[in-house]
Amino acid sequence: MAKEYDSNHDNTSSCSSTRNPLADLPSFGSRCSSSSSLDASKPHMSNQPAWQAISDLRSVKGRLGLDHFRLLRHLGGGDIGNVYLCQLRNQPSPHTDPDPTLYAMKVVDTDALANRKKLGRAETEKEILATLDHPFLPTLYAEFDTSHYSCLVMEFCPGGDLYAARLRQPRKRFSISAARFYAAEIVLALEYLHMMGIVYRDLKPENVLVRDDGHIMLSDFDLSLRCNVVPQLLTLDPPVLRQRSPDNSRSQLTCASPLHPIISCFTPGKKHRPGTITTTTITVQADDNCHHDHRHRDGRRRLDPDLVAEPVGLRSRSFVGTHEYLAPEVITGGGHGSAVDWWALGVFVYEMVHGTTPFKDENNRTTLVNVLKKPLTFPRIGVSDRKEYEEVAKLRDLISRLLVKDPRKRIGSRKGAAEIKRHGFFAGVNWALIRSARPPEVPRASKLKDRGESCRQVVKKQRESLVGSNYQTNQPFDYF
Ligand SMILES: Nc1ncnc2c1ncn2[C@@H]1O[C@H](COP(=O)(O)OP(=O)(O)OP(=O)(O)O)[C@@H](O)[C@H]1O
Question: At 336, is the pLDDT very low, low, confident or very high (cuts 50, 70, 90)?
């Protein structure tokens, strides 16, 4: 996969490349300069053992620090930090507990990051993680700083990432139904992020982790963009709203008046510092592709009001992301917003079922040129019956609407996730209950099957299913 780009910062060195992760950590006795204030209720996680264990310890100790954790294994390293498998020291060790409560701890070397002028990215990630509470997004259990390190304790995903999972599939491709499942969960996660005023900007299979129950968790928020956003209800009523366009040639629908403004940090076409607040109004054209064509009793087409709670007007000019997943507007630097996440969703779904990304070429430069210029094409997919043929047609239609080079014409760019959820590819998805649906693969199932084995074997198995390429079975393993 192509290297990540961030034109705002020096990207020549990497935390992970220069440091021996476990050896380099501060001693467990080191004093924490601050501790978590994450006692606030986390409704969807509050009855989980992992959350409870941290809560209990915090109520006894007051503050949590590195010395309360036993680091078990290095899970992986990225541009801004290293992530470790860990558990609380007051919990039974994996030698004796067949079902240990595990966490993932992201450790960021703040001094090194400050030198590389990337501290802002770590801070952004910490702030974003602290606000998230969604089944398909990470739960931050605790965060604390030591003299040199900033530590984030999160939910551990034993299923590895979807890039590694795809490579394990027959012909290195997911089935269409598996791709639909993962894409649907990602749509919900992105919808929530957008409603929170966060543009993710780093969707790719490597950042989609698989929980122990097989559901997904988006990870890695250091490239994300935050803004303030005010949800608004666009009430559409044709008799009142039908107006002539300026050239009087064709009618269009506009938002009801008075219009509640969407507030974003950026105004299209201008450079801004984060925090600048501007107002944007929206014009909504009648959407012929809408799949919810309800009608009034007299047969007139009725357009349901749409709640647009996502920062569809947000614009940033940063050049961030991974080459194959970069949206055209990021490459041209003309300003980008939440539509970049819908572009990346198109690349993601394409890769899941075809085993490659649509614009990939022999080097990064030509890949970027392809993103800007090359028309979207699809490789042949063999189908065995009519139903499968129709599935492929819907899949391609969705991808084609997501990979529209003009962000203003891209599905999701005007009415947010609702437009995408209505697409025929997702017909039959129970959006409200997908959390209870059976995922394509369930790591926990194999763990339960192994209950008879010694706990050491179980934990070893768990680790072997971790983030594919990052795991090496011949590495020494420290339980303590
Ligand atoms: N909660 C988790 N459970 C299991 N593994 C995780 C978890 N969080 C991160 N990892 C793994 O740790 C590695 C590094 O994590 P992450 O991508 O967050 O670091 P980063 O420094 O922000 O990376 P990047 O360079 O992509 O920004 C990845 O391989 C990821 O799969």
Answer: confident
For residue 255, how far is its CA from the centre of ligand 1 (angstroms)? 42
For residue 343, give the H/E element and its range. Answer: helix 339-354
Task: Give residue 296's pLDDT band: very low, low, confident or very high (50, 70, 90).
Answer: very low
Pocket of ligand 1 (CB under 6 A): 4, 75-81, 83, 104, 106, 154-157, 161, 209, 219-220, 222, 467, 470
Return the sign of the alpha-carbon dihedral for residues 255, 258, 264, 269: positive
Across 116-120, 268-272, 358-362, 395-399, least confident range: 268-272
- Contacts of the segment 251-258: beta carbons below 8 A, 24+ positions apart: 252/283, 252/285, 252/286, 253/284, 253/285, 253/286, 253/303, 254/283, 254/284, 255/281, 255/282, 255/283, 255/284
- The H or E element that residue 244 is part of is strand 242-244
Alpha helices in 104-246 (DSSP H): 110-115, 119-131, 162-167, 176-195, 238-241
Cα 252 to ligand 1 centroid, rounded to whole Å: 46
pLDDT above 50 (res 176): yes
Atom of ligand 1 at shortest range from CA of 223:
27
**Ligand 1: which of 219, 222, 322, 463 to mutate, most ligand atoms within 8 Å of CB?**
219
pLDDT for residue 123 is more than 50: yes
Residue 108: how many CB atoms within 10 A of its CB?
27
Residue 139's nearest CA partner among 273, 21, 201, 47 is: 47
Q: Is the Cβ–Cβ distance between 64 and 36 less than 8 Å?
A: yes
Residue 124 pLDDT exceeds 70: yes
The string of pLDDT tens digits covering residues 200-238 is 999 999 999 999 999 999 999 999 988 766 555 555 544
Question: Letter for the amino acid at 451?
Answer: R
pLDDT in tens, 435-452: 999 999 998 655 544 433
Chain-centre distance for alpha carbon 65: 27
For residue 154, the ligand 1 atom closest to its alpha carbon is 1
Look at residue 390 and give its three-state secondary structure: helix
Burial 404-440 (b: 16+ CB within 10 A, else e): bbebeebbbbbbbbbbbbbbebbeebeeeebeeeebb
**pTM score, two decimals?**
0.74
Going by DSSP bridges, is the β-strand pair 82-88/69-77 parallel, antiparallel, or unpaired? antiparallel
Whether the pLDDT of residue 242 is over 80: the answer is no
Name the residue with the closest Cα to ligand 1, atom 23.
78
- Cα–ligand 1 centroid distance for 80 (angstroms): 9
Residues acting as catalytic residues: 202
The dihedrals phi and psi of 301, each to the nearest 5 degrees, come to: -70, 130
Helices (H) and strands (E) in the chain, counts: 14, 17
